Amino acid sequence: MAPHFILHGDGGGLADMPEDLRARVRGIACGAHAPLDAAAIDLFPALEIVASFGVGYDSVDAAHCATRGICVTNTPDVLTEEVADTAMGLLLMTARQLSAAERYLRAGRWVSEGPYPLTPATLRGRTLGILGLGRIGKAIARRAEAFGLAVQYHGRSRQADVAYPYHDTLLALAEACDTLMVVAPGGAGTQALVNAEVLEALGPQGLVINVGRGTVIDEAALVAALQAGTIHGAGLDVFEDEPHVPQALMDMERVVLLPHVGSASVHTRNAMGELVADNLIGWFRDGAPRTPVPETPFVKGG
Length: 302
Fold this sequence. Notes:
alpha/beta, three-stranded parallel beta sheet
């Protein structure tokens, strides 16, 4: 972006930038976990665009940006396949305890104790319920079908372009499946949506996989359900308070934990960065960013 813009780092934080500099800033490029609430946004009176690095943008107050005519963009599509690959890998690791089996081998236990115990869980005969059948959810569904899984879903609305059974509520989806794939975005509307009642509905063979946002799952309820055997296991790439992960989760062998690496390949992160730059360049060149979010479908001067 350097040939197109004068770049400034935020140093200790946006509020620490000199006031005269904040008055001149017209665009902000931010990570998906850099909070930009209304107070932070209003520090920049000339702000025109916030380009968020990631498909989720719940850390940006897009509704407030809309009231000020500030365009918000994200980076969809370019990370869809990478995250879907990670989701299926996480599901396989969780069902077959692959990371635990690797630890067993590396610790020399195959030699000293014999073969790794048979895994009580399998993907055979499972029904995958997807919470959030957007771009990534559909990519996961296609992969799941190739693995022989039946797919059902719940979301804000029924999808006209798929034949998978739709459930009006998350609880109804959980009652119909034994494997829950969480691909929902964060925010107030999805806070702790996967609660104790939903987990209980999955049953004792239930698996929960989360590649959406950590806040979508009630983490305390998940820990309790795993400890009580209410569900069988979980595979998590995201958490409520990243990078902090509850010790109780780390102590469980039937839980697979990843450090939020869903899209974290050089290939995909480069593509995401290029889309951030393209959105900024498009806005300032001709007022047409490539991927504005629904809350701010602005063109410059529109």
